[in-house]
Each structure stands twice: as structure tokens, then as C-alpha cells.
Amino acid sequence: MSRGRNIQTILQPLSKCVTQTYLGTGLHTLGLLNWILQQTGRADVYVSTFSTSEAFLNGFYNLRKKALIGHSVLLADLKASRKTLHLYRLMQSCFDSVYLGMNHSKIVLVQNDTHLVSVISSQNQTYGDRAECTMVTTDQMAFYDLYCGLKDIVDNNSIQLNGLFDKLAERDHGVRESTDDTIAGVLPFGY
């Protein structure tokens, strides 16, 4: 699944080390997530990124099909929305909720009844050959702080995409079909 290096040559099992860091090439987020889920078992996954890719989403979808991922949330950046819109349908099949906000953070949070794992990375959910910095920790306070920050952005500074494009398409379709009044069904911007 991972296009990068063998993670066991970079990191120790989660049970052996509370906090681990890595700076270099070959450690990609998708492979790291798979490695974490192999140790935690099925878990909820929260992903925050500036940008994502089709390769990451396809891999995430495969992890879901293997029943390794329970509930999942994605927060991507509003400025990267052109790419996000292109991948919207795929994102919907991967994540229960998809949000856009002013976001440059790159974190992955993995949670179940027995594990709390936080990943902080400089890497977007893309593949590349540049050096990236990654920290993996099972520290509960770190997870809590990151989770609360993510929740605040999602709740107060983002828009949820789930169904948004479908609703707009339905509304636009309804407006085009209206024959009595060409302005019927048009709502003011921001309504």
C-alpha cells in the first residue's frame, strides 16, 4: 500500500514509544495510517490537510473496505477547493463528513476504545519525493488538544460539503424546469 520506505525501518511499534519523529523522504501519510490501523484495529479517523490526492483517497477507500476505518472526517483547505471539487465524489465515498475551511494543518487522528494516536506532518495527503517532517504520538493530551482544535475549525470556521453540490444541482435543475416564473426558486447569494 505504501509507496515509501518500510515503516518498520523508520518507526517503532506504537506500544514501544509514546512519541516518535522523522525528518526525511519515503514516509507517506497513507502508508503511515495503514501501519497505525494494523496496530490499533478498527478506529475512527480524522484527517486535516491543505490538499489531498486521488491516490490518497483511493487508498483510504480501500482501508474503509477492509473495515479498518469507522467514522471518518476530512477537513481540507478552501483555497485548494478547485482540486477538492474535482475529487468531491471520491471524497464522499471515503469520508462520512467533508469540510472546507481556512486550513493549512496536516494531521491525522486515530481513535478507538483503546488507542488515541496523533500524527502531525508537514505532508499533504499526496505523494512526493521531498523531505517531510512527521511526529507520531500516543500522548492523550496531544490527541485531546489536536481534536479540540480540529473540532473548533470544523464547527466555527468551515463549510460542510456533504450533499452541498447535490443540493445545488437539484436547486439549479428546479430553476431551469420552472416555466411559470423564470426567477422562482432563485435565492439571494449567501441565503
Features:
191 residues; alpha+beta; eight-stranded mixed sheet; 6 helices; 36% helix; 24% strand; disordered C terminus
Quick structural overview:
Helix content is 36%, strand content 24%. It is built from six helices and eight strands. α2 (54-65) runs parallel beside α4.
Secondary-structure blueprint:
Layout: E1 19-24, H1 29-40, E2 43-48, H2 54-65, E3 69-77, H3 81-86, H4 88-94, E4 97-101, E5 107-111, E6 116-121, E7 132-137, H5 140-156, E8 158-160, H6 164-177
Parallel strand pairs: 2-3, 3-4
Antiparallel strand pairs: 1-7, 2-5, 4-8, 5-6, 6-7
Our estimate of the beta-strand percent is 15-25%
Compute the average pLDDT: 83
Please identify the structural class as seen in this structure: alpha+beta
End-to-end distance: 44 Å
Q: Unreliable segments (pLDDT under 50, ≥5 consecutive)?
A: 178-191
Describe the global form.
globular
How many strands appear in the DSSP assignment? 8
> What is the share of helical residues?
25-40%
CA radius of gyration is 19 Å
Number of DSSP helical runs = 6
Largest sheet: 8 strands, mixed
Q: Order of helices and strands, N to C?
A: EHEHEHHEEEEHEH
Q: Biggest sheet, strands in spatial order?
A: 1-7-6-5-2-3-4-8
Describe the structure.
This protein is α+β, with helices and mostly antiparallel strands and 191 residues long. The chain is 36% helix and 24% strand. It contains six helices and eight strands. The chain has helices spanning 29-40, 54-65, 81-86, 88-94, 140-156, 164-177, and strands at 19-24, 43-48, 69-77, 97-101, 107-111, 116-121, 132-137, 158-160. It has an eight-stranded mixed beta sheet with strand order 1-7-6-5-2-3-4-8, sandwiched between helices. Strand 5 (107-111) and strand 6 (116-121) form a beta hairpin. The model is unreliable at 178-191 (pLDDT under 50).
